Structures are given as C-alpha cells and as structure tokens.
Amino acid sequence: MSEMVDLSKNKDYLTTTEAARLLSVSPDTVLKWVKAGKIESFRTLGGHCRIPMSALDALSGDKSGLLETEEITRRESTFQYCWEYLSKGGEIKGECHECITYRSRSRRCYELRNLPDGLGCLRLYCKSTCTECDYYKMVSEQGLNVLVLAESNRIITDYDDIDINGLHIRFVQSEYECAMMIEKFRPDFIVVDCTFGKRRTEIVCKSLFNDPRIPVVRLILSSKTKKLSDYCDKEVFGWIKKPFSIEQLKNCIEGTA
Description:
This protein is 34% helix and 14% strand. 26% of the residues are buried. α1 crosses α2 (27-35). The protein has helices at 16-23, 27-35, 53-60, 64-77, 82-87, 100-103, 134-140, 175-185, 198-209, 246-253; strands at residues 13-14, 42-43, 49-52, 144-149, 167-172, 189-193, 218-223, 236-241. It is globular. The longest helix has 14 residues, at 64-77. The protein is α/β, with parallel strands linked by helices.
C-alpha cells in the first residue's frame, strides 16, 4: 500500500464501501483484496483506505478469479460446532447427543471445560488438552462474528475497518437479510438498531433469541439513549450508544464499556 496522501476531497478515489457497491461484493471482500495486494489502494491522512477508480475499471471486466478465491476462503472459515467437526459432514455421532455441549448448543466446547466433572463437556473425543486440539486451534483463531442489523452502516463510525481486533462484522438492513446471513455467518453477537421502532425491535430480538441456529447468540441494542426496559431487556446482552466505533463495540462485547 502506498504512502498516506490527502484524498479526502478527491472524487476519483472511493471508500471500500463505495468500491464494494460498484463491484457487487461485500466491503470486507474489498479489504481482503487490498490486504492481499490484489487491488491498488492508498491511505488518507486519517488512516482510512481509499481505492482509485482506475483500479475498479480494471477489475469490473473480470473479477471471477478474485471471487472464486473469496468463496473458497469463506467456506473454509465458516464456523463449525464441535459435533459438526467430529462428524466430518456425516451423521452426528450418537455419543455427542449425551454431551451438554450439544444439548445446550454451546458454540465452543472448550468454554465449558471449567465446569465440574459430569456437568461440562464430556470430552468423549478429546485426545489432548484444549490448546493442543485441532478443533480449538481452528475455531479460536477465527475471532468473533458480529452481525449488525441497521438501516445504515453509518451506525459504525469507522466502517472502513470492519475486520480488525478479532471481530468479523457483517451488515444487514432487514429481518429477511438477517435470517439469510445467519445461515452462513453464525454470529456470536447481533447488534440491533432501535431505529426500527419499539415494537419491531422487540419482535426482532425475541425471534433472534429463540432462533435454534444461534442458541447462544448475544444481542446488543444500539440507540441514542439507553432505555432497554422499553424493549426486551431479558433477551438483551448489552447496550451501546449510537453511533459507535469498532473499538467501542469491542469494549461492549468484552464488558469493559
């Protein structure tokens, strides 16, 4: 990536969001191409990524190779429960049905390792410590998935940097898009913008909270004022004032906000 330059007022340079829209891909895909050196880019004086229009012109004709690489990467990084990992795409092992990790649909078996014997993971197929386990290494290195349901991605102030600090962020603008994204993304946290209104927000949160595909998902409401009791405080993990930065989101997730 080239040195920092002042591109703030130059219309020949686009943000990753603008570039993604023109290329019909996600912003994080554009960032991956930038980091891999597959697309020319610059940094503004403020540290944000900018992509010259000329680079998009070169890609718009044929980006099939890049998209194929992205699809392979996405498939390889899709989260798997431990019982899915052990089944290797086949039928879930019978013993797994007796383990509390499966019965509670806990996302990560190693998070239950400190429970007393007989209450936590049964360690039926554990041949080593968690830190030496291939499944642990695969999943723990993937970071946390955060899905943001909002009418605009401007709810996050530094939207250009959406794949940092161990957070993988995706945006959806409707309940339908949210349901479709959950199928392949499996979020650890879902941020719900209260701009949708009290009743709609309440329905959305209860639906997500009871979705069997994400049984341990944590919901975060975002609004300009904190009034969880007006919505669905029993289902909600936390609250964050909008708009917010990725660092503030990370602090909220870690309970340090």
